[in-house]
Amino acid sequence: MWLGYQQSLRPCQTGLLLNMDIAATAFIEPMDVIPYILNAVGRGASIDRLNPMQLKKAARAIKGVQVSSAIFSWVPHKQYLAQYSRDSEAHD
Prior knowledge:
The chain has 92 residues and is an alpha+beta fold. It has helices at 33-41, 52-62, and strands spanning 2-12, 15-25, 66-69, 77-80.
């Protein structure tokens, strides 16, 4: 867990308003996506046989997680996960 401050300076009727807030961010240890999902849904789960309740847990666990692909080592590719689906995104 990382603790820090978020600050912003905003205009208001009487001048400028300094807004300071304490922020907390959790970091997840680097690991592959499949073991991360299986760890989130619980013991005895198989990635190809998740029941509807486990699918919901998996979707909540990966929402907003940033992943990076290692297809090309010279082109870093990072994106945030939005949802979990049984459908493949493979294209012909």
